[in-house]
Amino acid sequence: MLPKFIATVLLVGFTLSVSAIVPQDLLRSYESQSGKASPTRGEQFFNAKHGKEWSCSSCHENPPNHDTKHIVTGKVIKPLAPSANPTRFTDEAKAEKWFKRNCNDVLGRECTAQEKADVLSWLMTVK
């Protein structure tokens, strides 16, 4: 019985590790849809106020390497920088969900692949 249990645990662990991504994988995906990312453009985009008079830094602050609170709901937001939160940008579906939601809040539209690539490339430089 025990060997079957161990085999199951190993199989589940292997499956989880295969499906996990790293931020660099997500960045490569965005760059393949748009072009080379620019951390400089990403930082400027992150700090600029957009269509709805918010910026990404309105909630995530700059640098986004610590817990913050949403400016409307007051809910705690874990660090956005992968260096401070190793689980950030390791689940593509979750990253896409939050990019879609946050871009709509800040821009009033979805972010382009170039905007995502630029912001993510900058976030990967934040210590």
Description of the molecule:
The protein has 127 residues and is mainly α. The protein has a single domain (23-123), classed as Cytochrome Bc1 Complex, Chain D, domain 2 (Orthogonal Bundle). It has six helices and two strands, in the order ααααββαα. The longest helix has 18 residues, at 2-19.
What features would you highlight for this structure?
Cytochrome Bc1 Complex, Chain D, domain 2; two-stranded antiparallel sheet; globular; mainly alpha; 127 residues; 2 strands
Strand content: under 5%
Mean pLDDT across residues: 88
Overall tally of domains: 1
Structural class: mainly alpha
CATH topology-level name? Cytochrome Bc1 Complex, Chain D, domain 2
Count of DSSP-assigned helices? 6
Write the layout of secondary structure elements.
Layout: H1 2-19, H2 23-33, H3 39-47, H4 57-60, E1 68-69, E2 76-77, H5 92-107, H6 113-123
Antiparallel strand pairs: 1-2
Helix pairs in contact: 2-6, 3-6
Give a summary of the structure in a few sentences.
By secondary structure, the chain is mainly alpha-helical. It has 6 helices and 2 strands, in the order H-H-H-H-E-E-H-H. The protein has one domain (23-123): Cytochrome c-like domain (Cytochrome Bc1 Complex, Chain D, domain 2).
